[in-house]
Amino acid sequence: MRRSLAASIGLILGLMPTAPVAAQDGTMPPARPADAAQQIQIARSILHQVQPCANRQVNPGPGANRIWVQMKLHLARDGSLAEIPQIVGHGGVDGDNERYVGQIDAAAMASFEHCTPLHGLPAELYDGPGGWSHIMMRYKLPG
Hints:
Elements lengths: L10 E5 L20 H20 L12 E7 L11 E6 L9 H13 L20 E7 L3
């Protein structure tokens, strides 16, 4: 497997396992775990849909393209954001580019806020382990 599915396009998604959500009647739906090939396909689909918004983000200054943002995303079944994305970490920050962290955070948020809802994700893999209801995303400016 390649080191990063999307290193050349500036977004890296890692799907994180989630616990199944109870149905309204309190029963647990049978959750089929997503296998590695399905997780890769989900990641590719998300990348394909989010990339146009990521490409529209402006580089605020020298060295900003070295900064990456780790985000938690909670998606609704219809592919929309169920919650505001949560920034959980940064990397590539140094004395020369630290002043751009806030702008890169805003660019990361905008990439998802403007390109959702996501379409075509397999409904049967929403809740299960390795599914797409909760994902971790690493955003980095293209280039």
